[in-house]
Amino acid sequence: MKHAWGLVVIWVLALLFALNTGREWAYNVLYFITGVIGVTLIWAWANLRGLTLKRGSRIQRSQVGRYFEESLELVNGSRWPKLWVELDDLSDLPGHQVSRVVNSLGGRASSRWQVRTLCQQRGRYSLGPVVLTSGDPVGIFRFTRSLLDTTSLVVSPATIPIPGFTPPIGYLPGGEVMHRRTPYITASVSGVRDYAPGDSFNRIHWRSTARTGRMMSKEFELDPLADVWIFLDMHRDAHAAAPWTPQTSGPLFWTSRKTEQRIELPPSTVEYGVTIAASLAQHFLHMDREVGFLSYPKRRELVQPDRGERQLTRMLEVLAVAQAEGTVPVTQMLAGDGTHLTRQSTLIVITASTDTKWITALRGLRSRGVQGIGVFLAASTFGPAPEWSGTVADLQASGMPAYLVKRGDDLPAALSQPISGSGRKSNGVWAPRSAI
């Protein structure tokens, strides 16, 4: 608008000069300047009238490593053409290049274009608002108009295939994984055996006892419908991160192990933990398991166990916005919420905490029949954090299955090579020591 103020000053000087001199040519100059100001002002103002912006996308969800596509159409509803219109998009989705200049938009015409953006960071983003700017051909006046309509986009974390994540037999009960007798009473009766001192009264199988003439007890298998729980530690003091700039080219997403394409996750234990949680949820849901989720970012985020793609969608929406802003440490989470898990549930804890009390708490859940698995993030490989080797040593001494993930690790490989457990791998499959 500097040019406009300059022209106004010139108009005032021309007016004073014409009034003081009274000459005809001075008045002609004044009339000319007045006409230029009036025409350009009306032109600039009218150039934004009758404009509407239509924007739409097929879905309002995307995922890290995938492309989000949005279609936009700038419509001129007036009969007068628009010389130029500048569109400035205020969306906060990184890399979403919607802003542009539309030239020579005819009357009753429209301009269409499509934007394709690679999603590299999870979160909830706003698409819009938009600011339209235009002016006159001389460049004296510029007007802006805000279109405040907005829509939201949820970018969920990436999920990677982890076929090598196979908990030891006995840690993932039921189904095709195992048929193992248990001292607990479950809904799955596998057979009968001779009565042994100490068997409870409700274990006696009376029909077999009457038929054989001696006391017979029922044998039970682990419940094939036992839940899988994922506990994600979001305590603010447990995590570490390093500066990161999203890459602008190159492969971003694991399509399969054969292609050797890898996603470049931000160097943050939070991002690694969220991606691992999402991938484990997808892994077990595809195995038709009931999966539940619990975390404490700003507030308690609980997803009750369920099956199917809808359950995965619910969990991904929670993980899309979860940040390490919690005040509940993982040890307290295990002590408080772990006691509510049903017997023979499989509990997977994802944490970067070097406080080994959480290992003790996880081992304590064994007495209740909860089978624990640890996924430990080596925080000092991401940024300033306590040394993690002592935590790894305690995990190995505990005998629980545990996995170690460091910065830059190939996650499918890291989650297929446990650092501890009650068994060892044979031909890529876990087996108990007694079976080898």
Compact description:
This protein is of the alpha/beta class and 436 residues long. 25% of the residues lie in helices and 28% in strands.
Walkthrough of the structure:
There is one protein chain. The chain has 436 residues and is of the alpha/beta class. The chain has 4 domains: 2-46; 51-156, Immunoglobulin-like (Sandwich); 181-221, no CATH class; 228-435, Rossmann fold (3-Layer(aba) Sandwich). The N and C termini lie far apart (83 Å). The protein contains 9 helices and 21 strands. Residues 173-180, 249-261 and 422-436 have low confidence and may be disordered. α6 runs parallel beside α7. The strands form 6 sheets. The chain has a 6-stranded mixed beta sheet, with helices on both faces. A 4-stranded antiparallel beta sheet has the order 5-4-8-9. A 3-stranded antiparallel beta sheet has the order 1-3-6, with no helix packed on it.
